[in-house]
């Protein structure tokens, strides 16, 4: 597909992107959170009880966590619980009891997922850990997270939660796999702003003549009230390369 065709198709989809539609089923959190510290701003988890033993899923989560938070080591030996599913706090300080109410409807169900909440606090925690890495890339990201203006600052103002869920399809082949990226916002206006931002991002990524670009060109975008969700279908090995730290 040519770049012009990709842009035209993406612009056509945006004309319908404001329509209300169905987002994917969400991780249930009404049963509360067990063993999760109160000051947690980033969690990983999943529907698969054997999540911590699957090298593909653990590798994907490790790359995602390193890219978003600067944390490079995952200890999955003692999970907490979120809505009855295993969950691990990644960015957290202190003790107490985590209030899961903010995550109601925020996380698409998936084989593995991660979610960030309370953007200002999340940015501060992530920046501290990125600084501690002691490399140029970490310092650059930390500075961007602390900047009062820019795309990340805008994200912090219009988004309450940000989640990515990986659904693994058929065993061995991975056919039918997909990624879902969901944001929740304070109101309909900010949800529309987030939807437009997601659309612009997928247009840019979709211009690449590569398997990753093809995934973005095949994506779907929908808004359900204060939630905007991007669905990215594709081969499992391609999906696990879309985000995260590259070597």
Describe this structure in words.
With 247 residues, this protein is α+β, with helices and mostly antiparallel strands. The protein is 38% helix and 19% strand. It is built from 8 helices and 9 strands. A 9-stranded antiparallel beta sheet has the order 1-3-4-2-5-6-7-9-8, sandwiched between helices. Helix 1 runs antiparallel to helix 6 and helix 3 packs antiparallel against helix 4. The longest helix is centred in the C-terminal third of the chain and has 19 residues. The model has no long low-confidence stretch (mean pLDDT 83).
What brief labels describe this structure?
nine-stranded antiparallel beta sheet, 38% helix
Largest sheet features: 9 strands, antiparallel
N-to-C order of helices and strands: HEEHEEEHHHEEHHEEH
Broad shape: globular
Question: What's the N-to-C terminus distance?
Answer: 28 Å
How much of the polypeptide forms β-strand, as a percent range? Answer: 15-25%
- Strands, count: 9
Rg result:
17 Å
List strands and helices in order, with pairings:
Layout: H1 3-17, E1 33-34, E2 42-45, H2 55-69, E3 80-82, E4 85-91, E5 112-117, H3 119-133, H4 136-146, H5 151-158, E6 161-167, E7 178-184, H6 188-206, H7 211-217, E8 220-224, E9 227-233, H8 236-239
Antiparallel strand pairs: 1-3, 2-4, 2-5, 3-4, 5-6, 6-7, 7-9, 8-9
